[in-house]
Design a protein that fits this description.
Pfam family, one: DctP
Shape: globular
Protein name: ABC transporter substrate-binding protein
Strand order of the largest sheet: 8-7-9-6-10-13
CATH architecture of one domain: 3-Layer(aba) Sandwich
GO biological process, one term: transmembrane transport
CATH class of one domain: Alpha Beta
Radius of gyration: 28 Å
Mean pLDDT: 88
Largest sheet: 6 strands, mixed
Structural class: alpha/beta
Keywords: Signal
Organism: Sporosarcina ureilytica
Distance between the termini: 110 Å
Low-confidence stretches: 1-20
């Protein structure tokens, strides 16, 4: 090999080694920068604005307060949720848009509030057939959580259910409702697409009145009656002060679900450990508040009886009639809206899978055995 060739090869080798060293150094720098950026994101403090559709002092607002407490505690203060009741950051009817657009990051809601936009929300908020336990099982084991996020996802939102109240009190009025016939011509606050259509088929007039306006509306006779929540929720709103009668059972809402909707863009900025915090906080809130409120409902029912509130029960044939009408309405809405059909199919499939075991529990698993504890 001649001297000139050796010189050229040596020069090329030096250039190659120098280039390799430079590339390795650049890679190390980029890696360190990436790790630093990830560390900064992981340790960054997040302060989110949080509104709700509920008034301060209501049982529903207490759910939002508990969720906020858990998120802040579980995140060791890395997340701060600035919670405000309805009307401060957003009106109830505008909250979905306010969160979807990112004006605020998080909102506490009842899905049925948005059924005017998409009737599928009605089934996500309440069913006229599922129990609270059914709802929770469907969410956690029957694919329900994915269904919530599919529907809310259409509005740039991520959803976390955090409460499943049981059967509502029934319709509260100042004239007794003893049968379906008594509902004819009555202006009654009813919410939920399914519920409103059923009431219309029964001859009643569903009125959409915000929760914080209900007390005055029934007191002034703007409406003839109302449905709102379980006994404890009704008590917290002091409806016993302005109504004398309850028509039971609350066939219109055998159970419901509430939760928080989170702006999807804000959600994506969170590191994984804070996403886990929100999921755990929502599930803990579900467990704590659902059972706390169920016990409070029992206490409130006893108080209503002592206060002289008259509870009237529909005849069995009326309840059978309602069940048939509900089935017709569900079929109608499923034909009208593919999203509604998708939610209904998911819930129906879950209930079908559960049906055999559920049948095995009857009648003891649904209350007969409580007679053993009467004293």
């Amino acid at each position: 090999m001649n001297k000139r060739l050796i010189t050229l090869l040596s020069s090329a080798l030096i250039v190659l080694l120098t280039l390799t060293a430079c590339l390795e150094k650049e890679a190390e720098t980029q890696s360190a920068s990436s790790e630093g950026s990830a560390s900064e994101t992981s340790n960054k403090k997040f302060t989110w604005k949080y509104s709700t559709i509920y008034a301060e002092g209501s049982i529903q607002y207490e759910r939002d307060k508990r969720f906020k407490e858990l998120v802040e505690a579980l995140s060791n203060g890395q997340m701060e949720l600035e919670l405000h009741p309805v009307g401060v950051l957003s009106d109830a009817g505008q909250l979905l848009d306010t969160v979807s657009e990112g004006t605020i990051e998080i909102g506490g809601d009842w899905p049925g509030t948005w059924s005017g936009r998409n009737t599928a929300f009605s089934l996500l908020g309440t069913q006229t057939g599922l129990t609270a336990f059914d709802y929770i099982m469907w969410i956690e084991q029957g694919g329900g959580r994915d269904v919530y996020n599919e529907i809310y996802g259409q509005y740039n939102l991520v959803y976390f259910p955090y409460n499943a109240p049981s059967n509502e009190s029934g319709i509260r009025t100042n004239e007794p409702i003893r049968s379906l016939e008594d509902l004819k011509g009555k202006n009654i606050r009813f919410v939920g697409t399914v519920q409103e259509r059923v009431l219309q088929k029964l001859g009643g007039n569903p009125m959409n009145v915000p929760a914080h306006e209900l007390y005055e509306a029934v007191q002034r006779g703007v409406i003839d009656g109302l449905e709102f929540a379980g006994p404890a929720g009704d008590r917290a709103m002091n409806f016993h002060e302005v109504t004398d009668y309850v028509a039971a059972p609350g066939w219109h809402q055998t159970a419901s679900v509430t939760g928080v909707m989170i702006n999807k863009d804000a959600w994506e900025t969170l590191p994984d450990h804070l996403k886990n915090v929100i999921e755990v906080a929502s599930k803990t809130t579900m467990f704590e508040t659902t059972f706390k409120e169920l016990y409070m409902d029992a206490e409130a029912s006893a108080e209503m009886a002592k206060a002289g509130i008259e509870v009237n029960f529909y005849p069995e044939e009326d309840l059978e009639k309602v069940q048939g009408i509900i089935g017709d309405v569900l079929d109608e809405l499923a034909v009208e809206n593919k999203d509604f059909a998708k939610v209904l199919d998911s819930q129906s499939e879950f209930m079908s899978d559960y049906a055999e075991y559920r049948e095995m529990q009857k009648p003891w698993g649904f209350g007969v055995n409580s007679d053993l504890f009467k004293r």
